[in-house]
Fold this sequence. Notes:
It is found in: Membrane. It is a single-pass type I membrane protein. Cys-rich GLG repeats lie at residues 112-180, 237-297. By secondary structure, the protein is mainly α. It has a domain at 2-107. It has helices at 2-14, 20-25, 27-33, 43-50, 57-71, 78-83, 85-91, 100-106, 115-128, 136-141, 143-149, 151-154, 167-177, 186-198, 204-209, 211-218, 224-233, 240-255, 261-274, 284-294, 302-321, 327-336, 340-361, 370-374. Helix 16 (211-218) packs across helix 17 (224-233) and helix 17 packs across helix 18 (240-255).
Amino acid sequence: TRQQLRVELFQREENIKLDPKLDAACASDQRSLCSNVHPGEGAMLECLKEHKNKLTRECHIAIFQRERLEAESVGLDYSLTLACKSALRQFCPEVEHTRALQCLANHRKEPTMDVRCRTMVQRRLVEQNTDYRLNAQLQHACRMDIAKFCSAIVLDKAAESTELQGKVIQCLKTQFVRHQLTKTCEPVVMGIVRDAALDYQLDPVLARACTSEIQSSCKDDRDIEECLKTHFQNRDIKNPECKKEVARLIHEGKADVQADPILYKACLHDIKHFCHDLTPGQGHLLSCLLTGLESDTIALTEECRTLLSKRVEMFEYAAQVAPVESIRDVVQQIANSPSRNYFVVVAMGVLGIIFVGGLFCGRVTKRLPANLKNK
């Protein structure tokens, strides 16, 4: 029966020796990377996952396939289930298995959650963001969006058997900034963007592109992403890949101000006071704050005004580094620009000149008699 199969799969998770195929595929890796680890309680499997970047290809493929199976249900993830047994009972008693990890993630800042559970949840979230196939909720909610916007990445057969290194999730983030996602997909991607804004390790593309910058300039900083943004604004980042990813990070903050935790915290009072009737996302809250920055009648708090002014400079530089790619992007850039009123006046002025010029200059083509037109 299905229940018996689940029990057998769960037991197999506990000890790698109960899965001869996986044990054989990773035999050399167990000796070279995890020689001090004893099989049992999921320890060997967890060790191999931690050293994923050093695994032989055969073992890496086998581990990824196991992770895909675990992603379908927390009940098949022995290490997570063991570490979070009490947390699952306390916070997620009625939650279905496919949503249990997200439920635990939503409660990971609760003081009553066990430290071991919190660490394991964080580890699983990092793994999940390396490949959309490890996120059951994202797969279901964004199925149509992935097919529409990210099919070229998904159809890359070379990466089929191992992680796509966050490429599909980054593709969805790009469409999130452009407000192109479906209503079912957008909130899920928004959640991923917000989580990644609080921990750069949940953004594998950024972490990989900016490895040297993080090590040399930001490793002792409490907020790695804010440190990268500061170095970006000061023109200190020379690596073009890292520069591009930090610019993308800034664009995400424009689309959803909660994806910019420092700005959101500084302007929370102002958002509640002046922008309380707006729906978060799609740049609504930022546009509201920028209106307040320009206005003589809206008094933003000093902390918000100061940081927002600095962010405006950052937005302008980010637009140069990662230029717009479509008419929709141009419209969005203008809508979120602090100089948007100026652009509107200039556009209206140009249209007015064309209209008046047409009135005074008359038609350009030569008038012809009706009988010649019919010919």
